[in-house]
Amino acid sequence: MLTAGAVCVIVFLVVAALALILPDPDREPASELPALARSHGIDLGVAVAVNPLTHDSRYRDLVTDHYTSVTAENTMKWQYVQPERGTFDWSGPDAVVNHAGDHGLSVRGHTLLWHNQLPDWLAQGSFDAEELRAVMREHFGALMGRYEGRVASWDVINEPFEDDSPRLRENLWHRTLGEDYVAEALRTAHETDPEARLYINEFGVEGSGEKADALYELASDLLDQGVPLHGIGFQGHFVHGAVPEDLAENMRRFAELGLDVEISELDVRVPEPATTEDLEAQADEYRHVLESCLAVSRCVGVTVWGVADAHSWIPEWFPGYTAALPFDDDYAPKPALGGMIQALSRGRRAQPRATTRTMSGRR
Ligand code: 9MR
């Protein structure tokens, strides 16, 4: 016979065990995505905004439950990091990097040199080449130096080509330092953090075409000169119905130069109103992108450009388009999330092929 005390202890233990096992009803179940991505040796990343990351626990949970890496959508850009010359604001970048560290997520650094989101003192300043080099060095030293060992890879050069043409963009760096600014920036970044993986990140180059060819030529030239370039980020801001079929084929030729490749800013915007059929077809497009990454042995990951439609840059920048991300305005999962799960559960990982160059054998 059990004593009343023993019964109480047993009841207490059962209730405590159930509390541990049963899910919190207010919490979405964690997904299998991180484990699936890791089983293929790739990262599944997400771009995060500091405000919801620090104030909205549901947003934070989506990040930690579904992804293995993060990119700061804006807060590591020059405008925010060094608003005045020599004055640095680390609050946003620290929030992102600390959140990642606390949850075992890796961090992609975005971005060091770009033509957009520059502070006025830099965009409107008049610097000669020597001064601009010093400015570059100071910025890289401060930003890369602060997160050395915690930010594994950097988009050193963002969008070096003109929007709709294969010409090198006429930006501040190009005008002042000449075409060599790309090589110079990569060398400076490498001196600053010799372990970091250094990327060129570009859009409109995901499928084959003139701009992709120009990027391929640039990457080949840089490698020929021994410049420390380790990877290419193919941004992947796609329009529903026009996601390139030849993603894997195009990324593979860069991989065969000895570079890592990744889809760095994925979203698939849908014209309003987004119907159920649109969202189901969008799921196939997300699946295709993930499968394309798996099909290239040096594809190291896919990052989606925002946590949920509620925070996406799309409605503001492309009026009339919507619903570009795997979670909706209310943070509910969309078919696109299922498309990514399908790709990672069924997809086979390509095996490495022999590469022709090995600038980057440090992985
Ligand atoms: O998503 C970012 C958006 O919030 C900013 O307003 C915008 C400013 O240019 O930059 C967006 O992020 C861009 C990224 O840094 C580089 N590739 C294109 C992205 C979308 O514009």
Can you offer a commentary on this structure?
The chain is α/β, with parallel strands linked by helices and 363 residues long. It has one domain (27-346): Glycosidases (TIM Barrel, Alpha-Beta Barrel). The chain has helices at residues 4-21, 33-39, 50-55, 57-66, 78-81, 91-102, 120-123, 129-146, 172-177, 181-192, 210-224, 247-255, 276-294, 314-317, 335-346; strands at residues 43-48, 69-72, 106-113, 153-158, 197-202, 231-234, 237-239, 260-271, 299-304, 321-322. The protein binds ligand 9MR. Ligand 9MR is lined by residues 73-74, 116-117, 158, 235, 265, 313. Ligand 9MR binds at residues 73-74, 116-117, 158, 235, 265, 313.
Key descriptive features of the protein:
363 residues; alpha/beta; TIM Barrel; eight-stranded parallel β-barrel; disordered C terminus; binds ligand 9MR
Going by CATH, what is the homologous superfamily? Answer: Glycosidases
**Distinct small molecules bound, one entry per kind:** ligand 9MR
Number of helical stretches of at least 4 residues: 15
Sheet with most strands:
8 strands, parallel, barrel
In quaternary terms, these chains amount to: single chain
Label the overall shape.
globular
**Secondary-structure element pattern, one letter each:** HHEHHEHHEHHEHHEHEEHEHEHEH
Number-wise, the strands total 10
Unreliable segments of 5+ consecutive residues: 19-25, 355-363
Gross CATH architecture? Alpha-Beta Barrel
Estimated radius of gyration: 22 Å
CATH topology: TIM Barrel
Average pLDDT, rounded to a whole number, is 93
Approximate helicity band: 40-55%
| End-to-end C-alpha gap | 63 Å
Biggest sheet: strands side by side, in what order?
1-2-3-4-5-6-8-9
**Portion in strands:** 15-25%
